[in-house]
UniProtKB/TrEMBL annotation:
Keywords on record: DNA-binding
Protein name (record): DNA-binding protein
Sequence ranges assigned to domain Helix-turn-helix in this UniProt record: 19-65
Organism, scientific name: Glutamicibacter soli
Record field: transmembrane: none
Gene Ontology molecular-function annotations: DNA binding
Keyword Amino-acid biosynthesis found: no
Domain of life of the source: Bacteria
Pfam family, one: HTH_17
Amino acid sequence: MNDPEAVEDLIADLPEWATTEEIADVMRVKAQTVLKWNREYGLKSVSIGSRVRRYRKKDIRDFLLKSDEAAD
């Protein structure tokens, strides 16, 4: 499990409902990586139309706390 305090610090500036791009900026990855996390690793999202997704801050936190336990 990742350090909860470090995860909180990392996502502190994210809005309650973040876009793919906002998460990518915070995590310093490409938007495609966030979409892969959604598709293949269970990062929860809400779809708004065919090309728009929003991620709840709580779900991002949960995903990051457990992400070091995921097998590649």
